[in-house]
Amino acid sequence: MSKSETKKINSKERIRSISGFPEWLPEYRLVELEWIDSLRRVFESYGFTSIEPRSIEPVEVLLKQGDTDKEIYAIGRLLGDNDNEVEPSYALHYDMTVPMARYVAANMNQLNFPFKRYQIQKAWRGERPQDGRFREFLQCDIDVVDTRPIPPHFDAEIPIIMHEAIESIGAGPLTTKINNRKILEGFYLGLGISDTTNILRIIDKLDKIGTDGVTTMLSNELELSATTIDKILNLATIKGSGEIVINRIKGLDVKSDLLHEGLDELKFVMQQLEKHKNGTFLVDMSIARGLAYYTGTVYESRFTDYPEFPTICGGGRYDNLVGDFVNKKLPGIGISIGLTRIFAKLMKEGKIKATQKTPTEILVVHTQNAPYDFIKNTADLLRSRGFNVEQYHEDRKLKAQLKYADEKMIPWIWFPPNKPNGPHEVKNSKTRDQNIANPNTWLPD
Amino acid sequence: MSKSETKKINSKERIRSISGFPEWLPEYRLVELEWIDSLRRVFESYGFTSIEPRSIEPVEVLLKQGDTDKEIYAIGRLLGDNDNEVEPSYALHYDMTVPMARYVAANMNQLNFPFKRYQIQKAWRGERPQDGRFREFLQCDIDVVDTRPIPPHFDAEIPIIMHEAIESIGAGPLTTKINNRKILEGFYLGLGISDTTNILRIIDKLDKIGTDGVTTMLSNELELSATTIDKILNLATIKGSGEIVINRIKGLDVKSDLLHEGLDELKFVMQQLEKHKNGTFLVDMSIARGLAYYTGTVYESRFTDYPEFPTICGGGRYDNLVGDFVNKKLPGIGISIGLTRIFAKLMKEGKIKATQKTPTEILVVHTQNAPYDFIKNTADLLRSRGFNVEQYHEDRKLKAQLKYADEKMIPWIWFPPNKPNGPHEVKNSKTRDQNIANPNTWLPD
What we know:
Two copies of one chain form a homodimer.
Chain A: H1 11-15, H2 26-45, E1 49-50, E2 56-58, H3 59-64, E3 73-77, E4 90-92, H4 97-106, E5 115-124, E6 136-145, H5 152-168, E7 174-180, H6 181-190, H7 196-203, H8 206-222, H9 226-236, E8 239-240, H10 242-251, H11 257-276, E9 281-284, E10 297-303, E11 313-318, E12 332-338, H12 339-348, E13 362-364, H13 372-384, E14 389-391, H14 398-407, E15 412-415, E16 424-428, E17 434-437
Helix pairs in contact in A: 2-5, 5-11, 6-7, 6-11, 7-8, 8-9
C-alpha cells in the first residue's frame, strides 16, 4: 500500500467512532482502571505474576492454535518494504493464551515452574461487531503451566480466584458450569467409541441445534446406534451438584480408566468449590468448550442475571498447547475473563456508576491577594501529604474556579487566606460546609 | 492476503523473538509495573485523568499530523473482505498525541476544560530497530487541552510533573532543555523575515550539520545576508539559566511583539523551574523540536549520564493540533515520555534490579500430617489479611517445596503445625530465622 492510495476522508469521518473499537469517557475509564487494579490485586494475592507479551505473533502461530476461523488482523508497514528487508507475516494476537504459550516455550529455561501468570491486555478480532462482541477488547487471563503434571489443586483454585476477581469488581453474580473432558471422552471410550473428538464437536452444538439435531448428526455422520446415542445424550443432560452428578453418571453403568480419572478430579474440584461458593458452581455434562486443546476440567461462566448473554469467562486444562512449541510436556490450566465484554454489558444495563470525572480530591483556588507562589506552595504541601491536588491554573473570578470544580465533581475546595497570616479554609462540595483548616494537618471527614 | 499465502515457518521461528518488539521476563515486568504505578500516582496527584483511546486511527488522520515520515503499521483482516463490507484504511497509532487530539475533538461536548489527561499505552512504528528505537513500545503522555488560551501555569507545571515522574521511577538524573518557539519566530520577524518555518527547519539541524552547514543552507536556500545569518546563529548558541539567556537575547537588540511575548513566558517558566530544580532545567536556543505543530514553549530531555542517547522525553505547546479536527480553537500543551526506551536503556546499563520473580510474599507449605483443607485455610487466612500468599500446590517432599520458594525468591515460608493444636512457624528466607507465629496476628519484621 502506498501513501497515495489511502482513501481521502472528510472531517466528520476523521473523528467518528469505529465500530467494535470501544472508547470510554474519563469517568468510565476511572472505573475501568479500578477494575484492572482490583483484578490484579486478587491475582497477585494468589501469587500470579504479570507478563506482557508483544501484541503480534507470526500468522502461522495464530492460525495453528485454537479457533482457526477467528478473523485475524494482519499488520504491514504502510510505506512498504523500502530496505529490501523481507517482511514476515505477522498479525495482532486474538487472545492471551497463544501468546502466553509461545512466551513460556521461548523462555522456558529462565522461568520457574509451575509458572503462574496473569495477563491483562488488549486483543483484536476482526469479527462483525454485535452485542457483546468487540474488535479491540481487554482480555484478562490467569494460567498455570508446569513441567510436571498439573496437580488437581489448580483445577479447584483457578475458578475460585476467578470468582473472587469478578466479585472484587462488583460484576457478579456469575454462574459457572464445570465439566471434565476426561469424563466425556472416558464415557465414549467406555461405550467402545474411539473417535471421541467428533462426538465432542457435535455435543458442543446441543445448545444451538437441540437433542434432535444432535441425534441426527451422531447417527448420520458417525453412524452410531440408537442405544449408543441415547446413552451419549443421557450423559449430556446430567447437571447439578458434584455429588448428584457423579452418582448419576455412575448409575449409567459405563466404565473406563479415563472416565474414572475424570470423576475423581471432578469430585475433588467440586468439594472445594461447593465449600467455597454454594450454588454458583454447577456441574453440567453438556459443556464441552469449543476449543480443541482442552484435555480435562473445563469452565464456562455467564451472568446469572443475563443468561442469554454470551459466555464472559471460560477456560480449562490443556495438556499439549504449550509443549507443542518445543516438543516437550508442558501441561497447563487457565481461565480467561472478557473484561471489555463485561464492562460494556454492565454499562449498558446502567450498573456502572461514574462518580468522578478526575482523580483530583482537592482544588486549591486563587483567592484575592494570595500570590501565585503561596497558592502553589499550598497545593504542593497538600500533594506531599498524599492527596491528589490541582492548583487552579489562573487567577480568575472565584465563580469560574468553582464552576470548574463543580463540573469535574472535585470533592474539596481549598481557599488560601485572603490576608497575610489569615486562616486557610476548606469546603466540602457535597455538604457545602466550609471550615478553617490547616494544610499541614487537615484530613477529610 | 489469504490463508494459503501465509509463509510456512519452522518450530524455531515460531518461538523466536521479533526484532523491535521487546518482552521482559517476569522479574523485569514486575519493575515495569511498579514504574507504571508510580507514574500514574504522580500524574493523578496533579489531577490528570486516564484515557485509553483505541489503538487504531484512519490512515489519513495519522499521516496528516506530526511526522508524516513515520513508518506506520496498517492493519487488515487476514481472511479479507467476506461480507462485501468496505474495509476503510486503518493503522496502529504511532504516538499518544494524535489519538488524544482526535479523542478530545470527538468528545468535546462531554469533556470539561481545561481537560487534563494522561495516557500510558502501547504505540507502534515500523522503524528499523536500533539502539533506543522500538517497533512496539510503551509511551506515556500528559497533556492539557483548553477551550481558552492555555495559561502559562501549565508551561511550568508540565515539566515539573515530568521530572517528578521520572524521579519516582528512579530513572534520573535528566537534563531538560527548554525553549519557546515565539522567541525564535519573534526574533526572525524582528529581523524582517516572515518565512520563519524554513529557518526553524534549518536551525533544527544545527546539532547534525553544525554552524557551517546551517550557514550554507540559510544563505543558499533562503538567500539571507551574512549579517542576518550571524544574528540567527548568535541567537541559536545562547543557552543557560533563564535570567542569563533573557539578558543576552535582549542584548542582541532585535525587537518584535512575538519575541517580547516569548521572553515573558520563558521568564515565568524558568522562575518556577529554577526554584524547583536548580541546574537540571536549562534554556537552550538551539532546541526547536522537529514537529511542525509546536507554537510556544518546547521541552527536550536526555539522560544526564548518557548524553549521546536519543531524547527520552519531549513536548511543548501546540495551539492548533486539536482544534483542527473540529475547526475550533483548542490549544494544548503536553509532554511525552518514552517509557520502553528508558526502561530498555537502564536495563542494558544494569541499573534495573530484579528482586522478585513473583509478587508472592508467603508460601504456605505442606507439612506432615497437615490436611489439605487446613493448609488451604491457613493460606486463605493470611491472604484475607492482605498478604500475597501461595498455598504450595501439592503434598511433596519439603525439599522440593523449599526449592520452589527459593527459585521464585519468595521472602517468607509458612509451616502449618505438624500435629493438631501445634504451633505454626514462619521462616525468613533471607536470614533463615524460623519462629513460632500466629496466622491471625503475624506481621513481617
